[in-house]
Design the sequence.
């Protein structure tokens, strides 16, 4: 059951974003920023958590989920450490994602060559 | 006087300089397109034996020059000046490519109109008697252009239908005061025309106004009707740009629909090669001219052609800073020399 | 811009819009739906497997992130992720795999310009904004949260 929810929720988010890509002049970079910030805001408003519980991977895999992860990290850090948590929480929560992207991305540069598109 | 000014922007050469020879070098995708067999040389992997895309682009510029010179049995030391340009920052493909030839050179920037700019300057200096041989060369490369203007090659994005595919290709033209099979009877140097469009994914629409302006100016300066040309061929307006051009010309009361061709549409097969709105880049117009247009003029199928490569004069910085994309187009009047005979 | 008034510019823009073909949106939405759905389902599979192995929620989520990113980088390297995106559009951009592709692609392309000046300087050329604005937004919201707590609005 959870697989079905993950599929259609994740798919629906992508389908909606497709409208942005096709009908506005927004470039991919800006769309990614929009997704991350929206995820953080939805997390702040308390909307993202129940949504994530329902959809599982369908909510956490999209970049919206990354924004929510950032927000949760900051919130926890603020609760535990007060004001300074604002600076501590973000990178702490997103460490896995950012580190993985950098480490694997760099390793890819050692192994792969840029190839012509067809 | 060998040349005289015509109207506001044009020159007519009474003793017209000729294109003695030309050569085209292209990448894999281009060699698989509709004009595939017509190119002089095609690469297997677009690296042409070099290590980077930039070095590859320099290499094909050099090869194009060497081939063109070889066809005419002229050595680089006989060439007075080289006029060349490309799309890259600081024109590095041209500088690195021309270095080995050791010909005094002028580095140009006209974006995708560079072939027109180079031919105009080469013919003007040949007609003025500054030297017996001038070389005009230009190039573009998909890898270098994508990296410079859009995204690294492995970046996964969906291209809109108005986007064009930068041609990997270079062509060189040997222009001389000696007789040849095709003469450059005149040139119309274009002005910058900007209709305020800010869409870098729709270059055809950005450049069409400039093409319309230069074509109309050419007809007015030379006192001609459009029908006096067998063909009017733009560089890379593509499918979208062509449609807009025909409309803009109609607004001026000129119908070129039966005469107009576009190199960007000719070089790729839209259906099978997934190139959306067509080819683009300096190399697009140049290699099409060398491999497709010039042979038709030499054979007499077309007697007089107006060749109008178009360029979009933007940079990534200007674009990011919110500026619009202005266009420019240069017109080159090419005519068959029916009396010319090939000597061995 | 010189030769055109603002009204002329807008008129030309509107005209160009009518002449410019666009992808069929419904079909593209379906493709995005399928592609994104598939990637999210894969993520769900990883999450479930991790939890079955006894890992807590946060660690499972981290593993899901790491594995999806690894997969995306691999597909980027062999030039397959581009084809997925060409077909699936937003379905490849929206999941975290799109973010990973946007880091791996510059790393591969710019290595010719050197380790520091090439890869080092340009690896975040596409993804940089995501990190900047993600951190900034969440921190800003964190500030609001802290203020709300200090003022007793939230306990």
Sequence:
């Amino acid at each position: 059951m959870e697989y079905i929810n993950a599929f259609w929720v994740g798919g629906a988010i992508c389908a909606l974003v497709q409208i942005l890509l096709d009908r506005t002049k927004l470039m991919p970079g800006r769309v990614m920023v929009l997704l991350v910030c929206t995820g953080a805001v939805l997390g702040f408003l308390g909307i993202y958590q129940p949504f994530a519980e329902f959809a599982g991977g369908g909510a956490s895999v999209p970049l919206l989920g990354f924004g929510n992860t950032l927000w949760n990290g900051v919130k926890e850090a603020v609760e535990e450490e007060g004001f300074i948590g604002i600076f501590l929480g973000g990178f702490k929560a997103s460490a896995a994602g950012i580190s993985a992207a950098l480490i694997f991305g760099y390793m890819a540069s050692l192994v792969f060559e840029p190839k012509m598109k067809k | 006087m060998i040349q005289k000014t015509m109207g506001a922007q044009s020159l007519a050469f009474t003793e017209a300089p000729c294109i003695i020879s030309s050569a085209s070098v292209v990448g894999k995708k281009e060699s698989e397109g509709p004009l595939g067999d017509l190119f002089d040389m095609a690469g297997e992997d677009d690296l042409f034996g070099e290590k980077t895309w930039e070095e590859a682009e320099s290499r094909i510029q050099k090869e194009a020059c060497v081939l063109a010179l070889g066809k005419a049995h002229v050595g680089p030391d006989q060439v007075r000046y080289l006029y060349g340009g490309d799309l890259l920052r600081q024109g590095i493909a041209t500088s690195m490519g021309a270095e080995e030839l050791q010909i005094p050179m002028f580095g140009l920037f006209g974006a995708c109109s560079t072939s027109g700019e180079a031919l105009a300057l080469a013919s003007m200096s040949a007609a003025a008697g500054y030297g017996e041989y001038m070389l005009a060369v230009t190039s573009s490369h998909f890898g270098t252009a994508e990296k410079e203007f859009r995204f690294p090659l492995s970046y996964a994005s969906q291209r809109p239908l108005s986007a064009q595919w930068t041609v990997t290709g270079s062509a060189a033209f040997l222009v001389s005061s000696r007789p040849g099979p095709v003469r450059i009877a005149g040139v119309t140097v274009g002005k910058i025309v900007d209709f305020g469009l800010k869409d870098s994914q729709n270059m055809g629409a950005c450049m069409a106004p400039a093409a319309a302006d230069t074509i109309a100016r050419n007809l007015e300066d030379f006192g001609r009707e459009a029908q006096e040309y067998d063909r009017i061929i733009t560089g890379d307006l593509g499918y979208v740009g062509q449609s807009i051009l025909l409309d803009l010309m109609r607004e001026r009361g000129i119908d070129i629909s039966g005469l107009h061709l576009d190199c960007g549409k000719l070089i790729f097969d839209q259906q099978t090669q997934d190139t959306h709105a067509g080819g683009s880049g300096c190399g697009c117009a140049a290699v099409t001219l060398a491999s497709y247009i010039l042979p038709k003029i030499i054979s007499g199928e077309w007697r007089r052609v107006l060749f109008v490569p178009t360029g979009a004069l933007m940079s990534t910085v200007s674009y990011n800073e919110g500026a619009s994309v202005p266009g420019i187009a240069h017109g080159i009047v090419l005519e068959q020399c029916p009396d010319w005979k090939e000597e061995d | 811009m010189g030769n055109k008034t603002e009204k002329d510019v807008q008129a030309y823009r509107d005209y160009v819009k009518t002449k410019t073909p666009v992808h069929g949106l419904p079909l593209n939405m379906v493709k995005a739906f399928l592609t994104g759905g598939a990637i999210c389902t894969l993520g769900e599979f990883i999450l479930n497997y991790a939890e079955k192995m006894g890992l807590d929620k946060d660690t499972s989520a981290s593993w899901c992130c790491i594995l999806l990113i690894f997969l995306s980088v691999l597909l980027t390297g062999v030039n397959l992720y581009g084809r997925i995106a060409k077909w699936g559009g937003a379905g490849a951009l929206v999941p975290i795999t799109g973010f990973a592709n946007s880091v791996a692609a510059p790393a591969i392309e710019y290595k010719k310009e050197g380790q520091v000046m090439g890869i080092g300087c340009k690896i975040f050329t596409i993804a940089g904004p995501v990190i900047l604005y993600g951190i900034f937004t969440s921190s800003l919201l964190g500030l609001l949260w802290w203020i709300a707590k200090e003022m007793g609005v939230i306990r």
